[in-house]
Amino acid sequence: MYSELIFKVALRGETLLTSPRWNKGTAFTKEERNDFGLTGRLPSRINTIEEQCDRAYDQLHSRDTPIQRNSFLQSLKEQNWVLYYSLLSRHLKELTSIIYTPTEAEAIENYSHLFRRSEGLFLTFPDQDSMEEDFLEQTRGKDIELIVCTDAEAILGIGDQGVGISSAKSAIYTLLGGINPAKAFSVTLDVGTDNERLLSDQLYVGWPSRRVRGDEYDKFIDKFVQLIRKHHPHCLLHFEDFGVTNAQRLLELYRNEHSVFNDDIQGTGAVTLAALMAAIGVTKSKLADQRYVIFGAGSAGLGIAKQTGVSREEANKKFYLVDRFGLIKQSLGPNKIRPALQEFVRPDQEWSDIPTNDAGEVELLEVVRKVRPTVLIGCSTKGGAFTERVVRAMKEGCKRPIIFPLSNPSNLVEVDPKDANDWTEGMALLATGSPFPPAKMPNGKDYVIAECNNALIYPGLGFGSMLSQSRQMTDGMIIAGAQRLAALSPALKDPDSGLLPDFQDAPAANLEVAIAVAQQAFDEGIQGVSWGREEVRTKAEDKQWKPAYGRYEYDEQGAK
Ligand SMILES: NC(=O)c1ccc[n+]([C@@H]2O[C@H](COP(=O)([O-])OP(=O)(O)OC[C@H]3O[C@@H](n4cnc5c(N)ncnc54)[C@H](O)[C@@H]3O)[C@@H](O)[C@H]2O)c1
Ligand SMILES: O=C(O)C[C@H](O)C(=O)O
Ligand SMILES: [Mn+2]
């Protein structure tokens, strides 16, 4: 059916073959080769997309390591979008882990050494006088619906990487969310780096200077945000992997004036809420009845704590936050407690009889022993932090502990889910941030480890907001998306199944999320479109971009 699509294209010859958006390589038909000046520029045989995918898949497998495969796929993306996304869609689970988590972490760590061709827009602090010009040079005349930006201060759990991530996040929007890649744009905000390894690396491609902070940083970010508001008022602005001192602050600053979204706070909060809803569906309890310990009180940790919808007064009763200085309690003082954590600070007297370490801190194990939490979530960047003693203490405190070690990439996971499953005799309800193989239950059955990664929901949240053209991404929209995702949980049918849909089903799950989000925008009366709520599903299906070539007609006024 997609071969019925007709595109008016204004490129010819070499420029057509080097345009990843329009290039078809050996799939150009005889007629197109005649019309676009390609006869003599391509070998004779005309391939189908299936044949091209088979060839590319073989080439991919001639590379041995995930990082070599990541580089291969990056090159393919630079050559031909339809082929790239077709190949990824055909081998979704296998290849998502190559272009995204966990392999993307290695690709970003080695970005400067693997560098071949730049992608998206680089806005660098000392060049800010030409920011608008640079921005318009690349975006002029384009109908941009999505901008993914990062300042790369807190990339996954690997910290400050100077430049990186936004293009992988943007590709996931297309692959799992159906966003047209021609309408999405990734931006690196290069404000320097405090990573010594990068600063002393002669090959580092970013701006080799210490990170700009304070007023100067805020002004730089503001200049960028105002540019988007001016030129693309409807566009969704997605923030990724900002540092913990900026992420929440920037979100609060802009979320009422533009459709902005922080993935680590809101996307992670939403996907974890969905996994929690599924888990309490299995344990037949309520969110409000859980006792939560969150290990790692950064952007993700706080996003999760807030997304559960527990009221401010309730928060201090239900949540125990543990960070690098142990339990967040009063006597840590303002230097060790960020203002955003205030509502979760525990009174000291509550802990006076609990042993501390030499530094006077209450460690995770002691917190688990005392609180007997039903839920333990890790977003600390500290691999292995959920030791056997911690996990066994969880099991002593409740029959079916909910344990989500969410730190990425795989080597930073707080506990290998296989171990957590063994140490709890298969009773733990588990979900991780990176993909892991199933664990074995004592009865020999496989227990599927749900991948609680924000990629299962952020493309749908974004698509829903773009579809409804809401000028805001409200909490109500995010919760509606989380509820819809939770309703798709395989564990609701079979308690031994994964808590969240398998990644193979991520495109379908994200579409459902998008529909719920757009419907919610209508319910809140903040949609910017003139069609009606009952049309949301059809409009969503129509708007989805699918990797398919269609037929090209040469037209000087056509797309470039
Ligand atoms: N699964 C997902 O979808 C998902 C989403 C977002 C983040 N994450 C992961 O969560 C982790 C944190 O991400 P973030 O964006 O919140 O980063 P962040 O920098 O905002 O927060 C990290 C927090 O962990 C704390 N921390 C650092 N070392 C610690 C230690 N040894 N013990 C206890 N706490 C420690 C820091 O003080 C900080 O508060 C990363 O590994 C990231 O990959 C996963
Ligand atoms: O990038 C991911 O895989 C999820 C998340 O945004 C993270 O920072 O770890
Ligand atoms: Mn992230």
Task: Explain briefly what this protein structure is.
With 560 residues, the protein is α/β, with parallel strands linked by helices. The chain has helices spanning 13-17, 30-35, 49-61, 66-79, 81-90, 92-99, 103-109, 111-114, 131-139, 166-177, 196-199, 214-231, 247-254, 263-283, 299-307, 312-318, 364-371, 388-397, 417-423, 458-468, 475-487, 506-523, 536-543; strands at residues 6-9, 121-124, 146-150, 184-190, 236-240, 260-262, 292-295, 319-323, 326-327, 375-378, 402-405, 429-432, 439-440, 446-447, 450-451, 551-554. Helices cover 41% and strands 11% of the residues.
Describe the structure using short key phrases.
single chain; 560 residues; alpha/beta; 23 helices; 16 strands; globular; binds nicotinamide-adenine-dinucleotide; binds (2S)-2-hydroxybutanedioic acid; binds manganese (II) ion; metal ion binding; metal-binding
